[in-house]
Design brief:
Distance between the termini: 29 Å
Strand content: 15-25%
CATH superfamily of the largest domain: NAD(P)-binding Rossmann-like Domain
Number of helices: 10
Largest sheet: 6 strands, mixed
Oligomer: single chain
Radius of gyration: 18 Å
Structural class: alpha/beta
Number of strands: 12
């Protein structure tokens, strides 16, 4: 089950059904609209009824964090939970699979991470959830730039123990030449562009938008206009779901086939 508000747009039920078809697992997975303040009793009822796992989307990741009996190290570091799993003894464990999904998709697209200079735009929950897995790949440095610089500074300080990380004001990025630029802001959801200097691009920069869409996002269009390759976040969505599926079922799936199926379905929806 996946819960959120809103939830009608969620592709999680389709993704997990594709995982089940591929792996031969017998699952039941639906979406549920949950009103604010009702997360705990919905989760309690689900697990009491024999449910094995819940995916959580906005605005309930903090609720899930507090609900869990125990947290994985990744969830504790991220400060948010997007996956709940019940263990044999009845203990509910909270996980955060977003960073695993992002790193897996970047690797799928042959984007190197070790010894690279990475820029992340934004300092909200989406960014917080991916910092530890990114830093574990040992980039040369990771820079956070956010409209409110204080938030970026606070985030960089909180993750300083995991690797080379710093904060930089959006208007002072200069000509640092980043190998990988990740858009973790909500600008693309609103169809808004982010004012960025082309000088932040290196010779072979790769631009990654954590939002997925049928058409190139404004950030992806900026990358194309600047001569850089880019990707949306559909692969991250599928990758984080695959990690949830592995936690619940103990089975790894081929995300490439699922990404291709979803991409084709999205194009059909558009036409």
């Amino acid at each position: 089950m996946v819960v959120g508000n809103p939830i009608a747009q969620s592709r999680s039920p389709r993704i997990h059904r594709l995982f089940a078809e591929q792996s031969g697992e017998d699952i039941s997975y639906d979406s549920k609209l949950v009103e604010r303040g009702e997360f705990d009793w919905v989760a309690e009822d689900f697990f009491a009824s024999g449910g094995k796992g819940i995916n959580i989307t906005a605005p309930f990741k903090q609720d899930a964090y507090r609900f869990a009996h125990r947290l994985s190290s990744g969830a504790r570091t991220a400060g948010a939970v997007n996956t709940l799993a019940i263990e044999a003894e009845g203990e509910v464990v909270g996980h955060n699979t977003d960073g695993v999904g992002l790193v897996a998709d970047l690797m799928r697209q042959d984007q190197p991470l070790k010894d690279q200079k990475i820029l992340i735009l934004g300092a909200g929950g989406a960014v917080r959830g991916v910092l530890e897995p990114l830093l574990k790949t040992r980039p040369t440095k990771l820079v956070i730039a956010n409209r409110t610089h204080e938030k970026a500074l606070q985030l960089a300080k909180g993750f300083a123990g995991y690797g080379s990380i710093e904060a930089c004001p959006m208007d002072k990025l200069g000509s640092q030449g980043f190998d990988l630029i990740i858009n973790g802001t909500s600008a693309s959801l609103a169809g808004q562009a982010i004012a960025l200097p082309r000088e932040i691009l290196a010779d072979n920069s790769f631009c990654y938008d954590m939002v997925y869409a049928c058409e190139p996002t404004a950030f992806m269009q900026w990358a194309a206009d600047s001569g850089a390759k880019s990707s949306d976040g559909l692969g991250m969505l599928v990758g984080q779901a695959a990690e949830s599926f592995r936690i619940w079922r103990g089975v790894s799936v081929d995300i490439v086939k699922v990404i291709a199926t979803l991409r084709a379905e999205m194009l059909n929806e558009q036409s």
